[in-house]
Amino acid sequence: MNIVDRKTSDLKEDALHEECGVLGIFSPVSYPIAKDMYYGLYALQHRGQESCGIVVNDDGLFFSHKDLGQVSTVFDAEELAKLPEGKMAVGHVRYGTTGGNNRNNCQPIEVNHQKGKMALAHNGNLSNAYELRDQLELSGAIFHSTSDTEIIAYVVTRERLKTPSIEQAVLKSMEYLEGAYSIVLMSATKLIAARDPHGYRPLCYGRREDGSYVIASETCALEAVGAKLVRELRPGELLVFTDQGITKYTDHCDKAKKQICIFEYIYFARPDSVIEDVSVHAARVKAGEILAREYPVEADVVVGVPDSGLDAALGYARYSGIPYGIGFIKNKYIGRTFISPVQEERNNQVKIKLNPLKDTVDGKRVILVDDSIVRGTTSERIVRLLREAGATEVHVRISSPPFTNPCYYGTDVDSKENLIACQMSIPEIAKEIGADTLGYLPLSTLHELVGHNGYCDSCFSGNYATPIPSNTNKNRFEKRLSER
């Protein structure tokens, strides 16, 4: 089977995409909070470019704006001006690994119920979403979106009607939720942050000099709004921010093996972020050093594929002593999820996004470092671009192990069907993408990136910490909504 030429059901480029980014701010005084939310979400834009949203709490009244598109287009000056001052706000940027790209799936999700209201933003995927949704629909719940987040909102609302506080409702809900969820939730008087017991997705909080607190998926968002990192939330931890201070709940801590997604370090997170006390940039440089150690080759220059391949390329160059060069110029106006409307345009998207620097590669043996190979289509085109620019040899090095298994925790790898590493051997993949040689980061070396073994590598190893879902289709709820 020819992976490069075969027709696929979607038109997404050959790259992985993350679920989303969450943000929350709690201030002791009311102020134009939407502007800070804008800057924080802009810093998290790499985690999702399909849609975004902000909900501001103005003395118990919620005001929101959500739409499809990136932060800079959804929140122009006019829309930001419409949002009032407030002491609290939650925000979200989304790339949907479950459900389609429509306005109903925009977050934060807002709920009005008998005991009040809430706004909820979520990063991750529930591995038991299908079962929970069945239970909720059979009990009378009517869903308006196809995202896992609405399921969480329903479960929390159900428990809130039976518990004395919103934090108790979230704690109780965590008993039913399986898989990955980092949550920021706002009620009329409280801002809540919670992380699943395995800690699949990152979540941290920081403090500003004015006494306000900022909760975010990554530390880069804290810095964007002038907050200094206090710490990461522990897996299973819940924090409540109120005028009285911070209350910590650890009921669900230390009940499951820590499973931070290793691909946060390899690709998802911004290189200037720090996750679990590990610099993302340093982890990627280390991956490049390991590649140079494990797969040395004689060459003239090392280049990286922008953006997440650059740090690993630098590490390869440092360890090997081969000069590092800028091999590509990236069109900065095209996001990580650039989608072509038709197949003919899809074939040209790499040329639109990346342009090789002939001066760097012409007449040279090139080591090309990238973060991953999914289907192989993009890798083949990038190798071809280098050869067209005059490269005499192209040796591809990948700063992750081969993808051989689906991810159920927030990455859009939903089956083995489209994974080239499940169809071909490494030499066959090298031939398919036109590389002279190909080397992947060894699975056994992943711990060297982060300095510990508390990470999830299930997409590489097939070792899952939660039961495998009964329904693994990422758009598993679309048909049910369309049949109504």
What does this structure look like?
- By secondary structure, the chain is α+β, with helices and mostly antiparallel strands.
- It folds into two domains: 20-259, Glutamine Phosphoribosylpyrophosphate, subunit 1, domain 1 (4-Layer Sandwich), CATH 3.60.20.10; 279-451, Rossmann fold (3-Layer(aba) Sandwich).
- The chain is 28% helix and 24% strand.
- The protein is built from 18 helices and 23 strands.
- The strands form six sheets. A seven-stranded antiparallel sheet has the order 3-2-4-1-10-9-11. It has a six-stranded antiparallel sheet with strand order 5-6-7-8-12-13, with helices on one face.
- A hairpin with a 2-residue loop joins strand 15 and strand 16.
- The longest helix is centred in the middle third of the chain and has 15 residues, at 280-294.
- It is globular.
CATH architecture of the largest domain: 4-Layer Sandwich
Order of strands in the sheet with the most strands? 3-2-4-1-10-9-11
Judged by helices, strands and strand pairing, the structural class is alpha+beta
* Distance separating the two termini: 39 Å
Runs in which pLDDT lies below 50 for 5 or more consecutive residues are: 1-12, 336-347, 479-484
Strand tally is 23
- Helix percentage range: 25-40%
Q: What is the makeup of the main sheet?
A: 7 strands, antiparallel
In DSSP terms (H or I, runs of 4 or more residues), the helix count works out at 18
How much strand content do the residues show?
A: 15-25%
**Corresponding CATH superfamily of the largest domain:** Aminohydrolase, N-terminal nucleophile (Ntn) domain
Question: What Rg, in angstroms, do the CA atoms define?
Answer: 22 Å
Instruction: Give the CATH class of the largest domain.
Output: Alpha Beta
Query: How many structural domains can be distinguished in the coordinates?
Result: 2
